[in-house]
Design goal:
Helix content: 25-40%
Largest sheet: 6 strands, mixed
Radius of gyration: 26 Å
Number of helices: 19
Number of strands: 19
CATH superfamily of one domain: DD-peptidase/beta-lactamase superfamily
CATH class of one domain: Alpha Beta
CATH architecture of one domain: 3-Layer(aba) Sandwich
Structural class: alpha+beta
């Protein structure tokens, strides 16, 4: 055999070997991921031919499958679409899956290895395999309160609410406005589904976006909780004296930072508690300069900033910037400049303070069950501490300061008669051409927290001068907390 033929033969053998390796890799190692991929139309068609398991809230289905009497056999339906869409997402034989429908697809579709025995039993009985069920952590009363609160805002409002169990990290509510109807995408009418997809996915209001988790915003004065935590961890006390007054010249610039409406916050020197109660920009910007950007960043990251904190739902990473100069540090300390947080993140800040300084990893899936209702895995997830953001003593001190914010400061609208509420308001400016973001973070009861909540109002028809965190977001926060608290 001459050299050219030998070289060609060796090349063909190598290509054939590479093809065998690739085939085995795809069939053995990638098979599960490809089966579960939302882009795999063949797998989705097979799933549509079997009964997909329900997604449950408090034992009631918020997503279920019913016979469709067509060649796809089963149609996915959502009994309360606008209310639960941010959590359930959608299942479509055309467009795939999202949210919990996606993260728990293998259980819901029945393809998970843990359901192997159920599939074999179904095949032996000449029945199509069925999917398992997913029980969510959502509290229906809190979810309704969050959704209805957003719907009650004036105009075509945009916003989000996230509520957590401070002790476990369980998500008790995740509501967004505007929401969408996943039934429109789940339909087997291809033309109707295509029209709905094009309308919803290109909506100017981003109706398919879970604003509570997938979007980050300037947190404004709610971030002063993080700055206060950093101060307490650095040796300050609630009675430590900090700078007051009406303005703060920013170093390295000619810019002067002023308080809202030119207020003096109660004097040229005030306590840290007073600074938080009246939300004094001058105090916290100056405090940020004294602490430094590294201390602020470290504290923010202990609360969950700059990291991915949840697996079961798509979520944006909240950000505290790096390489800050002094003016940028001062602005970051009051939740401006490039600081950006999701409502989930700010709910985690409140929950961490409520839980004695321990920040729990948030989760939304409570239990998984096979089609015959046997538990898959643990009966309930083990709460996981993400970080210890501050000591129990400092968390208690900050809680007391936050109670003062609600009792006698900017957070009065989050008060609940007969219950001690800890909270912090925020109003964050983004640009001169759009209205500010209105925030409220809170937890209650302050002495034995059962719920922590973050409310963010992104846009509303209220005149710019009337937009405040306490005024718009405070009542919604109170409504959600009342729905959870067991008296």
């Amino acid at each position: 055999m001459n050299k050219p033929i030998r070289t060609l033969a060796i090349g063909c053998l190598l290509l054939f070997a590479m093809l065998l390796v690739n085939i085995n890799y795809v069939q053995v190692f990638r098979a599960g991921a490809l089966d579960d991929s939302g882009a795999n139309k063949r797998a989705r068609d097979a799933e549509c031919a079997r009964k997909r398991g329900p997604i449950l809230v408090d034992g009631q289905p918020v997503a279920k499958s019913r016979p469709s009497h067509d060649n796809l056999k089963y149609l996915r339906t959502y009994p309360h679409p606008l209310l639960y869409a941010p959590a359930t997402g959608y299942f479509s034989c055309i467009y795939g899956t999202s949210a919990v429908e996606n993260s728990e697809n293998s259980i819901l579709s029945g393809s998970d290895p843990s359901l192997f025995v159920s599939r074999i039993v179904g095949l032996l009985g000449d029945n199509q395999p069925e999917g398992g069920s997913v029980l969510l952590t959502l509290n229906p009363s809190a979810q309704h309160a969050a959704y209805n609160g957003l719907q009650a805002l004036p105009g075509a409002a945009r916003g989000a609410v996230v509520a957590l169990d401070p002790k476990t990290g369980a998500i008790l509510a995740t509501a967004t406005a505007p929401s969408y109807n996943p039934n429109r995408i789940a339909t087997h009418d291809v033309a109707a589904a295509t029209r709905a997809w094009n309308t919803l996915s290109h909506s100017k209001a981003d109706v398919m976006l879970n604003r509570g988790l997938q979007q980050i915003y300037p947190p404004g004065s709610t971030f002063k909780l993080v700055t206060t935590a950093a101060a307490l961890n650095s040796g300050y006390t609630p009675q430590s004296m900090v700078r007051g007054g009406t303005s703060l010249p920013l170093p390295q610039t000619t810019h002067v930072l002023r308080n809202e409406n030119g207020a003096d916050c109660g004097g040229s020197s005030i306590t840290l508690t007073q600074a938080l109660v009246v939300s004094c920009n001058v105090s916290f910007a100056d405090l940020g300069l004294k602490l430094g950007d590294d201390a602020l960043r470290a504290q923010a990251e202990k609360f969950g900033f700059n990291s991915d904190v949840i697996d079961e739902l798509p979520a944006a990473v909240s950000k505290f910037p790096t390489n800050l100069n002094e003016p940028e540090t001062a602005l970051s300390a009051i939740g401006q400049f490039d600081v950006a947080a999701s409502p989930l993140q700010m709910a985690m800040v409140a929950a961490g303070i409520a839980n004695g300084g321990n920040v729990m990893r948030p989760y939304i899936v409570q239990t998984l069950r096979s089609p015959d209702l046997h538990l898959i895995g643990d009966a309930s997830p083990q709460p996981q501490v993400l970080h210890q953001a501050m000591s129990a003593a400092n968390a208690k001190a900050l809680t007391s300061m936050m109670v003062d914010v609600v009792n006698s400061g900017t957070g009065r609208n989050a008060a609940i008669p007969g219950i001690s509420v800890a909270g912090k308001t925020g109003t964050a400016n983004s640009s001169a051409t759009r209205s500010p973001y209105a925030w409220m973070v809170a937890f209650a009861p302050a002495d034995n927290p059962q719920v922590a909540v973050a409310v963010m109002v992104e846009r509303t028809s209220v005149p710019r001068a009337g937009i405040t965190g306490g005024g718009l977001a405070g009542p919604i926060a109170a409504r959600v907390m009342k729905a959870v608290i067991k008296r």
